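Why should sequence recovery work at all? Because a backbone constrains its sequence more than one might expect. Tight turns favour small or flexible residues, buried strands favour hydrophobic ones, and helices have their own preferences. The token representation captures these environments compactly. In the example below, the structure is given first.
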């Protein structure tokens, strides 16, 4: 969403990030509700992630407001972080299975020893999501799958979505206080998301994974490179 707003619609990076965060909080609430109803959310893991992500998000917002003036310097930081994270996400999507296999054989971590790594992951996500609105999803899910290999994928995904709600709410509220949220744009995005979800669900259910992964990774790579060249 953020790279589309920046590259195709000319929205300023800070406004795109702030608006996308609140958009994500609203849309992910629906998905999290479904996962909660189906009991595919691990609340203990979610709490561990939030212990790292929420304080990191607040500290990142304070740092942006204190040390970086809202304007061109902030835009440059956001574009650089966003472009880099899109490239990392593309790698995560393309090589997720190989990364999981490598982690299982070279760096095994039991669930009882995953507390600190999970909090650290949450802190990393808190910083990256607050600056760029990117970081959860492919990156977060891949690391969680490496840390909690015995959990079903659906439970990891549900936990990641549920964790994204408080994180995007805190980060989005902070961007709103900084004046970088366009509520008219947010409303338009929410209205368009309803038919978009329907069409996307129909398309994704008919497309094989071998086609979706490279296609999504290619879009992310192109977007990341273009953002880094801004």
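From this structural description, the recovered sequence reads:
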């Amino acid at each position: 969403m953020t790279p589309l707003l920046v590259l195709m619609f000319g929205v300023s990076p800070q406004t795109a990030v702030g608006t996308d965060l609140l958009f994500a909080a609203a849309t992910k609430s629906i998905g999290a509700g479904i996962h909660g109803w189906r009991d595919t959310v691990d609340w203990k893991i979610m709490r561990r992630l939030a212990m790292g992500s929420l304080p990191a998000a607040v500290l990142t917002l304070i740092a942006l407001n204190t040390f970086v003036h809202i304007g061109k310097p902030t835009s440059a930081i956001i574009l650089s972080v966003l472009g880099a994270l899109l490239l990392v996400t593309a790698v995560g999507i393309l090589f997720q299975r190989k990364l999981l296999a490598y982690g299982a054989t070279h760096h095994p971590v039991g669930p009882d020893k995953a507390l600190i790594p999970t909090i650290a992951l949450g802190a990393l996500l808190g910083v990256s999501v607050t600056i760029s609105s990117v970081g959860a999803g492919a990156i977060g899910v891949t690391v969680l799958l490496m840390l909690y290999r015995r959990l079903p994928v659906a439970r990891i995904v549900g936990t990641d979505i549920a964790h994204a709600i408080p994180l995007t709410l805190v980060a989005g509220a902070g961007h709103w206080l900084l004046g970088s949220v366009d509520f008219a744009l947010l409303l338009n995005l929410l209205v368009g998301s309803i038919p978009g979800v329907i069409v996307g669900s129909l398309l994704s259910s008919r497309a094989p994974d071998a086609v979706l992964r490279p296609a999504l990774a290619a879009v992310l790579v192109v977007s990341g490179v273009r953002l880094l060249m801004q």
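A few observations help interpret the result. Residues 2-228 form one domain.
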